[in-house]
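Quarterly update from the structural biology core.
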Amino acid sequence: MLSVLRPFERRAAPTVFAAGPTDSVQPRSAEDSLRDAVDAISREASNIGREAAEVRGLLEDTKKSSLEQTRTLAELAEQVGHITQSQQAIQDGAHDSLAAVDRARVTVRHVGSEVAGVVDELQLVSKAAREITEVALQTRLVAFNANVEAKRAGEAGRGFSVVAEAVKDLASKVESSSQQITATVRELGRRIDALAVELQTGDAGGRSAGSFWTALSAIQGSVASITGAARQSGDVCDALNARMVAMEAGVGQSSREIDQAMQRAESFLEIAENLIELVAECGVETVDTPYIRTAMRAASRIGTMLGDALRSQAISPKDLFDECYRPIPGTNPVQHLTAFVPLADKLFPSVQEAVLRLNPKIVFCIAADRNGYIATHNRKYCLEQRGDLAWDTANSRYRRIFNDRTGLASARNQRPFLLQTYRRDMGGGNFVVMKEVAAPITVEGRHWGGLRLAFHF
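Predicted structure, tokenized:
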């Protein structure tokens, strides 16, 4: 059995009262009184440490919630800003649309006037066509008379008769074309006149609106409604943004107050821890003493084993002090690998598991490098991740870096021992208050990390 078991061997309890021949009660010695006083101080310091750790943990949870609220408010403010920009763009677009409608209205009125002018021009064309028809009729009459005279002339007028026939046919075609032009111009004039009436009707008060102007007015009303809605929505966003700014300021103030409270809780916790350490260092046996001795012996044992591995060239100094933490893909919480993981898996369990069996109050015993990296945890916490974050946080704790306040302090401590009180996150919102003793692990005179031993109290 490892020497680390010795600190938990049962010691004889000190005699408090001694009965004499006459059964009289003898007064307690000064040493016994001092031991009792120190023990009482130790218990009170532990209680203070427990309460301080609870308060600090609750404040830390509140701060995390406050930070989350701050981030949420910032995201909301950003989204409101985007909405405000979009609304401004809508208002600008609607304003431009109204201006375009007004320009269209002016243009259409102008077109209506021009269309009326076109009708006048078409009437001139129609008049010219009628005149051409009259000329064609007269030409046909002249050609008919010429043809009659040519027939009377006999052979002498034959050539003239041919010309007269041709002129008559041409005049007939001209007359037909003129009549068609007249009919087309009349129909076109009717349509253009109707268009002119449509374009010019309804833009002035007192007359019924045409369909075009009705549609144009509907467009204008819809665009105006969009503008009003965007303006109203913009006002709401401005008010909301103002309230969010005020909320951000309030959350920021709360966060600063929480920081101050955490600092004070931290001070109380440090005072309690320092008091416990002073009691432990004074040489008086307390409830923490066995755990302190066990941690120091286990740290020494692991340091010796790593030194032996270096001397036997089972590992190089570079690999033993490797700080290149390579993330393992797909792990959450993130796990890492380093060059000394195989050696840790081989050596550490023999010490860590033996300590874990010493007392049911011991929660874990692990060796961490100076950055808080745990290559090999106790076997009950070295389970493969399942993809359930709460379960994985509580049960898959190996190959992980614990660089929180407690973890980093334990890993980098180089005093004979360090005693801390803290709340341990077990995942799923579950926390356990415990004490932790840390003792430095040195290899060939070089600080490698710390032995962390946590226990209930």
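Residues 1-7, 9-25 have pLDDT under 50 and may be disordered.
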